[in-house]
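Researcher: We're teaching a course module on how sequence relates to structure. For the next exercise, students receive a sequence and then see the predicted structure as tokens, so they can try to spot secondary structure elements on their own. Here is the exercise chain.
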Amino acid sequence: MVQPGDYTSNSGEASAELTGIYAGYALILLAAPTFGVAAAIGLLRVWGRSAPVDPMLRSH
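Model: And here is the predicted structure for the students to work with:
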């Protein structure tokens, strides 16, 4: 059961916790497009070159 005073906390502590949560969300939002750009660059590099001549390299 919820008691009076359960939701009171030190305001500085709550502020630091919220800042950490928002920083985590910001890192996730910045990382997702970065991975997409890296994947696109990787695909362009693979598609832009000719196939290797060596049979071992061609199989991988």
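Model: If you want an answer key for the exercise: The chain has two helices and no strands. Residues 11-47 form the longest helix (37 residues).
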